[in-house]
């Protein structure tokens, strides 16, 4: 727009209507009031303009890396829903010297928006931790509660809270729970178990449990249960747990989260979007994976 045609500027930019629909749909499924705003950064973190060539396609990922941004461009997505926030703190520059900023530049160049829900997904009544508790329970009945209630939850999503606690009607074999976790979290070959001194995993029974995806030990440390399940925790937290007579299982951070995005969040979001845009599509990134791989050094010989 030429200056001589009259006043012009940023106020004339038309934000993408499809991006707004995605943000509104995510807020309907996982209200931002559920997020822990004391430290988390959720919501629409990168916007984009209305473009006639944009496709109503959303790419879902656990972590937004440079490879995932490239994948979104390749798959023709106009919006990325990244579970983990892409931006946590303020930026004083945007250059290619930093991997996050280089990714942001690629997204801006491609006209791709980013919405991040994080702890809003964790705390929702039908959210990530409820799903993870369901995996632990399997076919066994368990009375449920939240580890830490969410005081800001709207009535439409109450009761809500961080972490989930369960009590079985009768004891359940720990090996059965471990096999179910491994299968449902993507076919894991290994899980890390911290057990009380003298305890044998093969003969341990569980009457109660608490789960919190990601770095969830601080959410669970006050739970009086037999079993703690989380994505990752520190050495000293594991020591504390076993000295309390508890078994602690960690499956690596994003392994505790990623399967939920595929099995629950992706189809729920697509169903909601298609009520307004029948051709809307929600896909997964092919490059989203946990950064750690457990190696058997004997296989390197």
Structure in words:
With 301 residues, the chain is α/β, with parallel strands linked by helices. The protein has two domains: 13-120 and 260-284, Udp-n-acetylmuramoylalanyl-d-glutamate--2,6- Diaminopimelate Ligase, Chain: A, domain 1, CATH 3.40.1390.30; 124-252, Udp-n-acetylmuramoylalanyl-d-glutamate--2,6- Diaminopimelate Ligase, Chain: A, domain 1. It has helices at residues 17-29, 66-75, 99-110, 119-123, 128-137, 174-184, 217-220, 235-243, 258-274; strands at residues 43-46, 57-61, 79-82, 113-116, 142-149, 161-173, 192-194, 205-212, 227-230, 247-250, 281-284. It has a six-stranded mixed beta sheet. A five-stranded mixed beta sheet has the order 1-4-3-2-11, with helices on both faces. The protein is elongated, with a radius of gyration of 21 Å.
Summarize the structure.
The protein is α/β, with parallel strands linked by helices and 301 residues long.
Features:
DUF34/NIF3; alpha/beta; metal-binding; metal ion binding; 301 residues; Udp-n-acetylmuramoylalanyl-d-glutamate--2,6- Diaminopimelate Ligase, Chain: A, domain 1; 2 domains; 6-stranded mixed β-sheet; 20% strand
